[in-house]
Amino acid sequence: MIFNILSTLLAANAIIFSIATAEVKPYEKIAFTNVGFDGTYFPVKKLSNIDSETKCTCEVADKVWFSGVNAPLSDYLSVHMRGPLSLFKFAFYSSPSFIVNNDRSSQDWTRQAYYDANSQTSENITFLAKAGNDSPCLGKALVYAASDGRSAASKSTILSSDNKLSSDQEYVIYSNVSCPKSGLDKGCGVYRNGIPAYYGFGGVTKMFLFEFTMPTETAKNSSSFEYYDMPAIWLLNDHIARTSQYPTNENCSCWASGCGEFDIFEIMNGTEKNHLYSTFHTYQGIEDLAIGIQSYGYIPRDTKNTMKGGVLFDSAGNTISFMSDDITFNSTYAVADINRVLSSIPVNETYSSQLLSVDVTAPTKSPMVFGII
Ligand SMILES: *[C@@H]1O[C@H](CO)[C@@H](O)[C@H](O)[C@H]1NC(C)=O
Ligand SMILES: *[C@@H]1O[C@H](CO)[C@@H](O)[C@H](O)[C@H]1NC(C)=O
Ligand SMILES: *[C@@H]1O[C@H](CO)[C@@H](O)[C@H](O)[C@H]1NC(C)=O
Ligand SMILES: *[C@@H]1O[C@H](CO)[C@@H](O)[C@H](O)[C@H]1NC(C)=O
Ligand SMILES: *[C@@H]1O[C@H](CO)[C@@H](O)[C@H](O)[C@H]1NC(C)=O
Ligand SMILES: *[C@@H]1O[C@H](CO)[C@@H](O)[C@H](O)[C@H]1NC(C)=O
Ligand SMILES: *[C@@H]1O[C@H](CO)[C@@H](O)[C@H](O)[C@H]1NC(C)=O
């Protein structure tokens, strides 16, 4: 996947070193610029013998290209939550055009999906959990999540008002728009038989907002935990969880070949258990996808109080993770209102870094056309 970017690696090292020497401090806003590039990934073509301990395997198809602003995160994305976490509000917004601090090139945001725990409102949302059929190479399949966000339900169910995930527990939020049937050339790609399959949240220019708590884990730490007291909110290319989020074979999802992940607020390790980092797991100028492109500043995790925050991907390649008590969840978000939230965060509370330009051009001229070549 990194064949064509060797020429940019020298520049990459220079930038990464200059960032790494900056002091790691708390911020309210983490900004990335120059987000999006032309690149490829390998979609899953076939899942074989998924119940067999010895023969469970997957095959990928030929590479597909993505290109343009925010790519590959311009594709449909699913929203993932890991505990300790309670979700009070969630909203997904899109805008035909929005450029941070440029009112003339911006149009208001429209809310397209919404969850409010208190009023038990759920619009254009499906909560899914990995609580289905367990496969040796794919792990557990997606099923409808019950109101606790963890166990299985027979139909789409709203998350309860007192929802709370503990360490290691996760659920996923998709839209309520059903996928066509599984198939390489179909809208949702190849996915596991029998799962509830929905589109994630699409568009180049998009914003995800959350009101939530991340209280300290009350259970004792032990080796049975994988992510003890390490909550996170993150986005994945919506194909990933429909095949496998944590496969034992890299070809069982498009993740390893770079179809896209962005971590909005993530605790990285137990040493820094109250530091929320943002990270791109894409191949934009880097070789090690697992490490990814990380912010070297963090947003503090408030373990006592409700936090309001989210991420905005604008139309000019700016990605901004931010936390602000001024966030609202109304059905439209006016240009001036969101700019006010962002600009009220002082410049010295903003950590900014630029992603590298990648010197490859997709063979198609139109962005968002995912041709199979
Ligand atoms: C999806 O959500 C929208 C917004 O709440 C609603 O109008 C629509 O009926 C829902 N569709 C389905 C299939 O549930
Ligand atoms: C629901 O979300 C999907 C995916 O982003 C979007 O295409 C659709 O228009 C939304 N539906 C409504 C009713 O807003
Ligand atoms: C994944 O697929 C590629 C291309 O078909 C193949 O070269 C590679 O060996 C596969 N990886 C695994 C772990 O099976
Ligand atoms: C914890 O994560 C941060 C952010 O990635 C990193 O800088 C730090 O070195 C990590 N600490 C340990 C002990 O791994
Ligand atoms: C929990 O225990 C693991 C080792 O089992 C350790 O790596 C981790 O830092 C601990 N977490 C906390 C928050 O103490
Ligand atoms: C959101 O709606 C509330 C109540 O209707 C209103 O007071 C507030 O000004 C709105 N905020 C924004 C940012 O639109
Ligand atoms: C920004 O400036 C304020 C006031 O001088 C200070 O309290 C704060 O620590 C600074 N933040 C950063 C990230 O340096």
UniProtKB/TrEMBL annotation:
- CC annotations in GO: fungal-type cell wall
Q: Name one GO biological process term.
A: cell wall organization
Which GO terms of the molecular function aspect are on file? glucan endo-1,3-beta-D-glucosidase activity
Specify the Cell wall protein YJL171C/Tos1 N-terminal domain's residue ranges. Answer: 29-94
Residue limits of the Cell wall protein YJL171C/Tos1 C-terminal domain? 108-339
Enzyme class, UniProt record, top EC level: hydrolase
Would you say which domain of life the source belongs to? Eukaryota
Q: Which UniProt keywords apply?
A: Cell wall biogenesis/degradation, Glycosidase, Hydrolase, Signal
E.C. designation(s): 3.2.1.39
Q: Where is the signal peptide?
A: 1-22
Provide the coiled-coil residue spans.
none
Describe the reaction catalysed, as an equation.
Hydrolysis of (1->3)-beta-D-glucosidic linkages in (1->3)-beta-D-glucans
- Extract the InterPro entries matched here: YJL171C/Tos1_C, YJL171C/Tos1_N
PANTHER family attached here?
CELL WALL PROTEIN YJL171C (PTHR31737:SF3), PROTEIN TOS1 (PTHR31737)
**Family as reported in the entry's similarity comment:** Belongs to the PGA52 family.
- The name this protein carries in UniProt is glucan endo-1,3-beta-D-glucosidase
